[in-house]
Amino acid sequence: MSRKDAQLDAMLRHLGAAYYDSLHGRAADGDVGRAIDQVAGQMGENPPVGAAPRSHQRTGQAERPPLSTHHGRRHSRVRDVMTTEVLTVDRITTFKEIARLLVEHRISGVPVLAIGRHVVGVVTGSDLISAKDKSAGTHRRWTGLPRNIHDNDRYSRLTAEKLMTSPAVTIHPDATIAAAAGLMHDRHLKWLPVVDPEGMLIGLISRRDVLNLFLVPDADLGHHVREVLAEALPGESARVKATVHGGVVTLSGQPDGTAAHSRLAAAIDLIWGIDGVVDVIDHVSQPQPA
Question: What is the CATH number of domain 216-284?
Answer without folding.
Answer: 3.30.70.2210
